[in-house]
Amino acid sequence: MWRNDQLLVLPSLEAVRKNDGRIVVTQKFIDGMAEYARLWDGPVKAILEPAKGATNNLDNKAVVPASLPFGLELMSFRDRRMQAELAASAVVLGGTHYRQNHLAAACRKAKTKFVVNTEYTLATREQIAATEEWNPLRRWRRAWWERSQEKANVAAIRAAAGVQCNGLPTFQAYRGLNDNAMLYFDTRTTADMLPDEEQLESRLARLLQGEPLRLVFSGRLIAMKGADHLPPFAAELRRLGVPFTFSICGAGDLEDGMRTALAHYDLCSEVLFHGTLDFRTQLMPHLQQECDVFICPHRQGDPSCTYLETLACGVPIVGYANEAWSGLMEMAGCGRKVSMDDFRLLALAVARLHEDREMLAKLSLKAWDFAKQHTFEQTFARRIEHLRQCAGLEAAAAV
């Protein structure tokens, strides 16, 4: 058993409190915090800053804080009550966010260990800014601001007891700043959600018979995710003579424009919109049973859980060579990467896999094998052990 000390989690995620006292957060956040609470021997609490307006995450849920297996409170990270929360904790898990720049020093004052969770490198944040800011002056200002923030990130990582890096980009960028760095891959896929070998072989048998390729994209239909490239990609694939169907799962502000483009290309029968699917009961079964290749035109190196969750279904990824997918490709070799922002090369990579079904089947098995080593349970167990080590908590001798 470990000492009964609090684990305090301070996500950059903001939340909304409804008039009836419920708090609107994502299901992914709830699942992650519940796993922390299951594995940590002691109280676990999350403090989120209140959002100024409604949030639009696809998996938002309104929860009653008292019904959760962990503490949940809304509070500004600058609130004077925060110092007492830090002092009451064995370890604080924070992030690289401008609202948290003061936390490393505050934890040092409270004599509490601080661990930084990282997701976006400076390059990725600049890529995100480039997709969101079309005005050149605003883009320059934001890039300048991001470089200034990076200095605060580096200082926090150097001062922290440890750093947990979501994905290879930040691990490669920051591991030299802290002797206690760990790499993990974000995922919501639990062990019971993985297909077994028989299920995977059944799907691959259809693939090897030469049936039309079944392609999929899931996520927000926004520029950062490259959703606007999906219609011209599909048109190029048809030009190359590849028989296919294409499922688009998700929602976003580009959807109407995508539908218009697909109608222009006369592709409405090949490309179908499925809307936002429930992750466990709808999306994962669809990926496992109805998909052969995931198309990933992400314009930045966001360490999206989409990568591991797709690979867990035995579905290889063909995507742009952003930082996140390039790093995963180097480790796992379970897909293809092409130059950024070139949907023609994306289509050509899929066409070549269409012609080499044996290779596509091998990539599917590679994807499945890699993801089996990085399930939700395994990932959180490693992260909790790292937090214990950072906090200096050791197991007592067995009685």
Short description:
This protein is of the alpha/beta class and about 400 residues long. The protein has two domains: about 5-185 and about 375-390, Rossmann fold (3-Layer(aba) Sandwich), CATH 3.40.50; about 190-370, Rossmann fold (3-Layer(aba) Sandwich). It has helices at about 25-40, 80-85, 105-110, 120-130, 135-160, 170-175, 195-210, 230-240, 255-265, 280-290, 305-310, 325-330, 345-355, 355-370, 375-390; strands at about 5-10, 15, 25, 45-50, 60-65, 70-75, 90-95, 115-120, 160-165, 180-185, 215-220, 245-250, 270-275, 295, 315-320, 335-340.
Helix content: 40-55%
Give the CA-based shape: globular
Assign the structural class, choosing from mainly alpha, mainly beta, alpha/beta, alpha+beta, or little secondary structure.
alpha/beta
Q: Please, how many domains?
A: 2
Protein architecture, described:
This protein has 399 residues and is an alpha/beta fold. The protein folds into 2 domains: 6-185 and 376-391, Rossmann fold, CATH 3.40.50; 191-372, Glycogen Phosphorylase B (Rossmann fold), CATH 3.40.50.2000. 44% of the residues lie in helices and 20% in strands. The strands form 2 sheets. Strands 1, 2, 3, 4, 5, 6, 7, 8, 9 and 10 form a 10-stranded mixed beta sheet that branches. Strands 13-12-11-14-15-16 form a 6-stranded parallel beta sheet, with helices on both faces. Helix 1 (27-39) crosses helix 15. The chain starts with 5 loop residues before the first strand and ends in an 8-residue tail after the last helix.
